[in-house]
Every structure is written in structure tokens, then in C-alpha cells.
């Protein structure tokens, strides 16, 4: 990993772009972070829409987390942004759009072809990024995972012991195979569900929450569509990470 850019944001937050091989990423650290006072880390998940397109929302989350004493970091997902194209993923996305525009039920085959290869490729990349980030003297852990593609969060919660808590957004299509992995999750979870999310199968989201094996799991459901998450819902996620990372 090497840093490619540096800028100072409001509140003394340091934003650094980095490259992990050919994978772009961004790290935000609060002003107080130092080798003598390392801070916990939250990995910021996001949908595969490209870091440039997601940046306004990511930096808002990062600044909010920095105010609570957390470093945050994210990486570009495979086949997104400036990374090389991924024809199989593009074809799966096209199949999904056609089904949704036609008002058809999205088949399990489409969901599997869209999500499972992404999980298989993205999770080792997140782990490699975590290796590099935790080698920095100002980052001390523990580590949380927040948001993004819920199936990536599930896999990371199962295979990555350094992640001790996860805040997940129940708004992405989930392959049936991930339900079995969900039963293996044991870390504390805070799951956010928009009750009227137009792109989400509410019952499937409830079934997935029921499947999680964690003894501590909270479902925070609010009325409204995908983009209508209230501010206080974000505050609840912050309190969740404060309990488990500090």
C-alpha cells in the first residue's frame, strides 16, 4: 500500500488516498490519531457504484465517525470505478435491470451470478487492505465493518476475526447460500432496514436477520424508502460502534 494524495478536512480530519496494488482506497483519520494514541478502525462498505460517485456519502460518514474518535477506510470494489471492467458482472447487472424494469421477480440465478462472484473476489481484498491499514502506527483496532453490500459484510464477519462488530444495511439482494453463512456469524450486529425500500424484499431481509447466529443483534427498522434513512438511525449506528470498539 502506498499513499497517493493527502488533504485536510473539517475538524482536523486527515484524508489520504491510497493504492493497494491496483486497488484504490481512501483512509480518514481523526486529528488525535497518533502512534502514541492509535484509534479504532471502521471499514466503510458501499454499493458497487464507484468511489467517485459514492464519495459525498462516504466522506460524510467518515467525518461523523472521526468526530467520535474512529478512523475509517474504504476500497474500490472489483469491476467498479477506475478498476478494470468485469464482463460477467456487467452481464449480471444488465439481467437484473431487465428483470426489474419488466416488473419480474428477480431469479435466484441472477442474484447468485451478481453477488457471489463479487463476494468471493472482494472479501480477500478487504482483508489485504485491513492488513495494510493495521500496520500503520496510528491505527490500533479493534475493527468494525459498516454498510455496503450485506453479503460482503456477512462473509467478512465469518472469516475475519479482527472484525468484532458490524453495522449492516438490509438493502441488497442476498443469495440463498449466504443464509447458511449468516448462521455462522457470532459478532454483535446492528442491522438497518428501511421498511418501504423499493429495491428490497422485506421478508427476505427479516428472514436473514433471523438467520444470524449472533447472540447480540439489533434490527433498526424505519418507515420510508431506500434513500430515506433518518439521521437518528445513523446516530444509533455510531452508538453501537462506540460500545464495541472503545
Question: What attributes does this structure have?
Answer:
alpha/beta; 9 strands; 7 helices; nine-stranded mixed β-sheet; 246 residues; 41% helix; Rossmann fold
Write up this protein.
- The protein has helices at residues 51-67, 87-101, 108-134, 150-159, 177-182, 202-211, 231-245, and strands at 2-8, 14-20, 23-29, 39-45, 71-75, 139-147, 163-169, 189-194, 217-222.
- It has a single domain (2-245), classed as 3-Layer(aba) Sandwich (Rossmann fold), CATH 3.40.50.1820.
- It has a nine-stranded mixed sheet, sandwiched between helices.
- The model has no long low-confidence stretch (mean pLDDT 93).
- It is an alpha/beta fold.
Strand order in the sheet with the most strands: 1-2-3-5-4-6-7-8-9
Helix/strand-derived category reads alpha/beta
Report the sheet with the most strands, covering strand number, pairing sense and barrel closure. Answer: 9 strands, mixed
- Distance from first to last alpha carbon: 27 Å
Could you tell me the strand content as a percent range? 15-25%
Could you tell me the mean pLDDT? 93
Radius of gyration (Å): 17 Å
SSE order, one letter for each helix or strand: EEEEHEHHEHEHEHEH
CATH H-level superfamily title: Alpha/Beta hydrolase fold, catalytic domain
> Count of helical segments?
7
CATH C-level class is Alpha Beta
Q: What's the total number of strands?
A: 9
CATH topology: Rossmann fold
Integer count of domains: 1
Identify low-pLDDT runs.
Answer: none
What characteristic shape results from the CA principal axes?
globular
Amino acid at each position: 500500500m502506498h499513499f497517493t494524495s493527502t488533504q485536510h478536512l473539517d475538524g482536523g480530519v486527515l484524508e489520504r488516498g491510497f493504492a493497494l496494488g491496483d486497488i484504490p482506497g481512501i483512509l480518514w483519520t481523526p486529528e488525535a490519531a497518533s502512534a502514541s494514541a492509535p484509534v479504532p478502525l471502521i471499514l466503510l462498505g458501499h454499493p458497487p457504484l464507484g468511489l467517485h460517485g459514492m464519495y459525498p456519502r462516504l466522506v460524510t460518514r467518515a467525518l461523523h465517525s472521526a468526530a467520535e474518535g474512529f478512523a475509517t477506510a474504504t476500497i474500490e470494489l472489483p469491476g467498479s470505478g477506475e478498476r478494470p471492467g468485469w464482463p460477467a458482472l456487467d452481464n449480471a447487472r444488465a439481467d437484473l435491470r431487465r428483470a426489474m424494469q419488466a416488473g419480474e421477480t428477480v431469479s435466484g440465478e441472477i442474484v447468485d451470478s451478481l453477488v457471489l462472484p463479487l463476494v468471493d473476489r472482494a472479501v480477500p481484498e478487504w482483508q489485504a487492505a485491513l492488513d495494510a491499514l493495521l500496520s500503520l502506527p496510528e491505527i490500533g483496532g479493534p475493527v468494525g465493518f459498516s454498510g455496503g453490500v450485506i453479503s460482503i459484510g456477512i462473509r467478512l464477519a465469518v472469516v475475519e476475526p479482527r472484525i468484532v462488530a458490524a453495522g449492516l444495511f438490509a438493502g441488497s439482494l442476498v443469495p440463498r447460500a449466504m443464509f447458511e453463512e449468516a448462521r455462522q456469524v457470532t459478532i454483535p450486529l446492528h442491522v438497518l432496514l428501511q421498511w418501504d425500500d423499493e429495491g428490497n424484499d422485506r421478508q427476505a431481509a427479516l428472514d436473514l436477520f433471523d438467520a444470524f447466529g449472533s447472540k447480540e443483534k439489533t434490527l433498526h427498522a424505519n418507515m420510508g424508502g431506500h434513500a430515506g434513512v433518518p439521521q437518528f438511525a445513523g446516530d444509533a449506528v455510531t452508538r453501537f460502534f462506540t460500545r464495541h470498539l472503545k
